[in-house]
Input
Amino acid sequence: MSSIDLIGLGKSFNAVTAVKDLTLSVRDKEFIALLGPSGCGKTTTMNMIAGIETPTTGEIRFNGIDISRIAPNRRNIGFVFQNYAIFTHLSVFENLAFALRVRRLARREIDRRVREIAALMQLSDRLDWPSSRLSVNEMQKLAIGRSAIAEPAIFLLDEPLSNVDAAFRVFMRAELKRIQRTLQQTMVYVTHDQTEAMSLADRIAVLDRGLLQQFDTPAAVYNRPRNTFVARFMGSPAMNLLEGNLVGLNGAMVFEAGAKGRLRLDLGEAERLANAGAKQRILLGIRPEDILLARPDAGEEGLTLPINFIEPIGPRTILHLGDSAAELKVVTGKRVPYRIGEAVKLVMPAERRRYFDPASGLSLDAGGERSGQHGQA
Amino acid sequence: MSAGSESPAVAAATAAAGGGRLADALGPRLTRRIGIATTLPTQLLLIFIIAFPTLVTVYISLTAWTPLDGITWVQAYTSWSWFDNYIEIFQDGRLGGAILRTLFIVAVAVTSEFLLGFGLALLFVDKFAFRPIYYSLFLLPMMVVPAVSGYMFLILFQSTGPINQLISFVTGHPFEMVWLTNRTTATIAVIAADVWQWTPMMFLILLAGLIGVPQDQIKAARLLGASWGQILTRISLPRIRAVIVIAIGIRFIEALKLFDVMFIMTKGGPGVATETLSLYIYKRTFGDLEWAYVAAIGLTIVIVMSLAAIATLSAVRRIKARRAAAA
Output
């Protein structure tokens, strides 16, 4: 039961900067995900919160109090390692009891709380097993239970689901949410898997190369990416980014994408882009599932492209369109009434379009729609 | 014996001769014969080195023969005495004293070596400046020939030697303890020499064990609130239990053979105050020339030591088995 404030946090290893000027606040009982590709600084950030690593710059506060001088074992945090770090020389019971034993609790109290947490983690029938005989999935639950038993104010999870099988991962996602609701803890969850982050977190902090890219709710990060990195990183397939020119045509603003065609901007859009200082070259971003398909001779306005490849993935189908250098992807329903090589018209509803500056990669939409709560001021 | 249970030497020979194809061509019987023929010289040599002396020792130990009899050992049967020598072992007070003294010295020395070696190993687990240099320095005593270290400590413990000089300097009073002619201080000096020389070995083995403890488990224990001492007693120590048993076992068996240092420093004196088992055997062999009796003692020691070694190994195996059952 604790809030976390990271203020100008930075960490360098010799010449390498792992985390740079990271400022973000986690509210009490909030579940946040640190999301990014490997090497983005998310694990380093987590280690600094835990106290395993010392920040080079900046400050960490729990409940507004600077904790940089507090040793890791006094920070009252639970930490679940990626490889679980189960004490394989101890039984499941002793693993769970570890945090209580080192706190010298009474035997009866330890016994009661171990059984309680074992019930929560569904490990009750495994208590007297040697922990090394557990399956990977059970080790995962043991690792979480072992940290949860001390009722830490803050729970840190470092890629806890990366080693378990796919079916268990889906099950565990729901379990984690349930456990967090039961334990009422502040959770920080490190992952490179955007689906995990989206489904679990109250807010997601997207990191890349040590820099915070965006810190907002899953919906905001997905629908209103602050820059092209977030746009490409979130979603599978990623957001389409199409380079083109803004030109005036017959008194209206038009997005022109060469031979693919052109799109007329509506008045609100044009005004927004002008306010944001958009230049002539611009990136149009649109989620693959937001594109509607039509016959090339349909009346609606859109870009016309040939289908390269049709990729059925069960409930949905991914269409790959255009040349491979600037491929567009469209996610559509199970049934596709088109063939490979056929040209289709892509209709992009104005409210689904996002614009980015090709030079800086920054979003040009911030002024228009509700601005997400960004990590960086 | 089937072809499947060939000796490793035969297997290696056939493998070298072309991955078993030659063995197939020759058939199992011929293959085995070639194997036996080619390894025969080695086997004979081993029999000569190990079995022959052992049998001679057994033979002599059952007689009252000594080289002073003027007959060769082959004729020792003329003084056949059955188990008199073995009975003598249990009635020999000086031997019993030597054994107890050896056990005492070994117990004190090995315990000190373990505690010091473990302490040092704990310090060396974490990196610090100049660690490789200190590391090499600490291992140096182990490389010294025991006879040389015996001389070093003989000189150190002279009444006008460096140790007394140092004590005099520190206390400000002239200190002239005659270390090696007093029962207690001579024992201390001898133990000090052994500890100096063999702590590095303990250190080396235990350090290897401690480095093998998974770092992530230590990190996890720390984050679960364990203090340094709790990590040591709950994670590190239980995980290196087998290593500790091996280290102590090796040192225990080695220390029982304690001779060189003692021989040079005190020759077992004053009186028999530091006379250990090996020193006693040496004296009976070369001083009293009672070779038949010494042969009996020697054989008894081999048997007892073998039993001790078996006990140690089975203890290690039990720990391993328990871990394997857990895995």
User: Anything to note?
Assistant: Chain A has two domains: 4-225, 231-356.
